[in-house]
């Protein structure tokens, strides 16, 4: 609690103590009750009365201070002294609670966004200087010691280390980095000293972009928030007018002024829309903050709200559902065992730098004795001929097999087929393909479970490859062999298929799909760590490249919206009940005050749940 | 031009909403948001009259919520 809050707390405690004393002592004392109650009333309420007066002078009439002042002064005037003190006291308790809760949320978001490096160690004329990251130019060399945060994006010149990207991606598994690798600001260097040449200025670095994005996210309001702001504008004046009418009209008819004025005062006690005005934005703020902690950056509460209504999810294939890296997907030996086939292929390709050769070597993943390889000849557009253990081996495509005259057989697997043969004898083939991400299937299933009606994949790849991936992942529709412009057309077609309130989300890696990202209702870029283009183009950015983050994002968005709706319905319902009971004389000021402040406290407490969504998803 | 200002002693959410509405009405202001949670004012206004507009913003703020101070 800060100083101001502590002071309020003391005022509440002292006033409450005097109030209880007055309630107990008043009946026995010979003096009139009014001064006894005025002491706690003024202790707790003087500032409200003062503000009310000052604001009226400024022309601000429907202000909560004014309402509380009128309600309590009115209560005193009709002789309801304890009610007046209680209403004021309880109002202050509510305000204090709200202030502390908001401070808590704010500092908890600030802590999770505590990724901003304070300083950078820059090498200048042989000396290491500590400077503000903003003062480091592009192309300078900085030194990052273990335990320090990477201040600026750059590329490693010297040293290797593991980097913790948890603050950016929510992913706790550290990454290894060595010379030539890019490092991204905001990561924490864990083990070794790194010398890094900066490739960006501080304000263009990842960390600045992210902070900027999160800080501005409250500017784009969700519809629920806009509704509340509009509602609040009419609610208070309406209730005050109602109170005036309730005080005057029945009194003129019945002549019972004291009763109807009291009913009207109850109206005033509950006329502040605070519970709504604070709890709904607080919910979205917490939801956006909770998402950032999980590595899901949301550019505005409106996108979080839209994501909650996702009905059609369209994916790009390469790099989104698949890894975008070529790997050995299958080994089909004809006349030998799998290991032998792979070893032969890897040996034959051991000198090649072709991506296919690299993936063969990676799949073999053991030391290759290059002495076993004799002469090697690359046959352009065909493959390789190499002498391995003094036997000539052919590794390559269908054409190569036809050339050397062996009977090869095609493969049913989608992907690039690499045949292996020795002289006159076919040994089998290896299929190399872009592999589906390990969590992609689970991600699609998660979306279905979350109520997404349709999942679609758009790809520039061949029909067979696209269909194979689609079938493996359980996607509803696959459209292959598309040019970037075709993807936009398909998204537009799909936009026509959704229900009026549904939302179409497009998920891509943000590299070539900026037009599609902006055409969709919600554009989601994934694997965005270090990709400015993606961060710019998308509405929601998944910091790592796991498709399952999307279903997590949708589920968090749904929960945030659910909490906001609970608060809206709960607060309005309680206030409506009190209003009606007040009209029929069934509610007193105690109940009104409890309803007003109680609803606020409960709604705020409920709103702070949004901050911790990632813990239970 | 878009600028952000820190707000101190902005104590009530409803006042923040009212401040926002009042600031949006000032001539020359294209967009304004007052975030009670972040205690921040984001304002977008005509470049050449920015100083002048900010003076009006401060005046409006004083009127709506006298305790709240804009950290210029």
- How far the N terminus sits from the C terminus of chain A, by CA atoms, comes to 31 Å
Oligomer: heterodimer
What is Rg of chain A?
A: 34 Å
Q: List unreliable stretches of 5+ residues of chain A.
A: none
CATH architecture call of chain B? 2-Layer Sandwich
Strand order within the widest sheet of chain B? 2-3-1-4
Main traits of this protein?
heterodimer, A: 617 residues, alpha+beta, Calcium-transporting ATPase, cytoplasmic transduction domain A, Rossmann fold, Calcium-transporting ATPase, cytoplasmic domain N, six-stranded antiparallel β-sheet, 20 helices, B: 72 residues, Alpha-Beta Plaits, four-stranded antiparallel β-sheet, 4 strands, 39% helix, 32% strand
Structure description:
The complex is a heterodimer of chains A (617) and B (72). Chain A has 617 residues and is α+β, with helices and mostly antiparallel strands. Among the domains of chain A are: 120-215, Calcium-transporting ATPase, cytoplasmic transduction domain A, CATH 2.70.150; 296-322 and 437-555, 3-Layer(aba) Sandwich (Rossmann fold); 324-435, 3-Layer(aba) Sandwich (Calcium-transporting ATPase, cytoplasmic domain N). In chain A, helix 15 links the parallel strand 18 and strand 19. In chain A, helix 9 packs parallel to helix 20. With 72 residues, chain B is an alpha+beta fold. The mean pLDDT of chain B is 84. Chain B is globular. Chain B has one domain (2-71): Alpha-Beta Plaits (2-Layer Sandwich), CATH 3.30.70. Chains A and B meet through helix 2, helix 4, helix 7 and helix 9 of A and helix 1 and helix 2 of B.
Topology (elements, then pairings):
The complex is a heterodimer of chains A (617) and B (72).
Chain A: H1 3-25, H2 33-57, H3 64-77, H4 81-112, E1 120-124, E2 127-131, E3 141-144, E4 154-158, E5 161-164, H5 166-169, E6 175-177, E7 182-183, E8 188-189, E9 194-198, H6 206-216, H7 223-254, H8 257-269, H9 274-293, E10 296-298, H10 301-308, E11 310-316, E12 322-333, H11 338-348, H12 355-364, E13 373-379, E14 383-388, E15 391-396, H13 398-404, E16 416-422, E17 425-436, H14 440-449, E18 454-458, H15 463-473, E19 477-479, H16 484-497, E20 503-508, H17 514-519, E21 522-526, H18 532-537, E22 540-542, H19 548-583, H20 589-607
Helix pairs in contact in A: 1-2, 1-4, 2-3, 2-4, 3-4, 3-8, 4-9, 4-20, 7-8, 7-9, 8-19, 8-20, 9-19, 9-20, 10-19, 11-12, 14-19, 19-20
Chain B: E1 2-8, H1 13-25, E2 29-35, E3 40-45, H2 50-64, E4 69-71
Antiparallel strand pairs in B: 1-3, 1-4, 2-3
Helix pairs in contact in B: 1-2
